[in-house]
């Protein structure tokens, strides 16, 4: 293992970078805006970050996917990366090895090796942010499926799409083109949709809805009850399929410890393997998880 790796956690808004020593010590941390629509500007931004560290490998946690067979990337919020072999192009430009992984996979890797999943053979890492994402690590290694699609528990019809029943079931259209995906109700925007769906009469943001839930507000309580029921059911299915013994939670909603505690209780009620041990746990690595997880790519 090299002594240090240059890591970048690349999202639709910012590139967070650091030189990571011994997989966990973050130095020379920087944050710059992500050039979303101009690949030359994107490559130049990374070159500027990398030039002070000649010869140091670059590992990227990307808010997108890299096809493990073709190397082509796709990133909904960074259009300039779509259908390009980003790792190869950057490796040629920066004159160093470049490895790319999905940011949720990197999160799961970090929590598996150094976070709440340490000591567990099967770790499911989930992101509850604007929407939902996930990554699966078994035996310390990420599981990569066809086209890099694994752990995507947020997509696929989950809430039944029944004609004339949309006032009875929170079946919302999803950005993936389907209806009723967990992604539509499982993140911060999902809580806001549920709040309006149950009759909340204002445009409260998720934090305000959670605050209202804590005080017993009727509409907020109904919205969170739906959130907990559907999200815990989806997670229970994921646990029953994968055998995961811990679910590490990242993203903005992981800051609501009481919400995650309630989600843990509901999920354990629904799985086949009965356990009194906590299953759904807030990340212990926080915003460093993407950078730390990226160090394990390519090994």
Please summarize what this structure is.
The protein is built from eight helices and twelve strands.
Polypeptide structure, described:
The chain is of the alpha/beta class and 299 residues long. It has two domains: 4-105 and 288-294, ATPase, nucleotide binding domain (Nucleotidyltransferase, domain 5, 2-Layer Sandwich); 119-283, Nucleotidyltransferase, domain 5 (2-Layer Sandwich), CATH 3.30.420.40. Helix content is 32%, strand content 21%. It is built from eight helices and twelve strands. The protein has helices at residues 39-50, 86-94, 103-114, 188-197, 206-214, 218-242, 257-270, 289-294; strands at residues 4-10, 14-21, 25-33, 58-62, 65-66, 73-74, 98-102, 122-128, 132-138, 141-142, 246-250, 280-282. The protein has a five-stranded mixed β-sheet with strand order 3-2-1-4-7. Strands 10-9-8-11-12 form a five-stranded mixed β-sheet, with helices on both faces. A hairpin with a 3-residue loop joins β2 (14-21) and β3 (25-33). α4 packs across α6 (218-242), α5 (206-214) packs across α6 and α6 (218-242) crosses α7. The model has no long low-confidence stretch (mean pLDDT 94).
How confident overall, as mean pLDDT? 94
Number of helices: 8
- The CATH class of the largest domain, by name, is Alpha Beta
The CATH superfamily title of the largest domain: ATPase, nucleotide binding domain
Anisotropy-based shape = globular
User: Looking at CATH, which topology of the largest domain would you report?
Assistant: Nucleotidyltransferase, domain 5
Task: Provide the CATH architecture of the largest domain.
Answer: 2-Layer Sandwich
Cα-atom Rg, whole angstroms? 20 Å
Into how many domains do the coordinates divide? Answer: 2
Poorly predicted tracts of residues? none
SSE string, helices as H and strands as E? EEEHEEEHEHEEEHHHEHEH
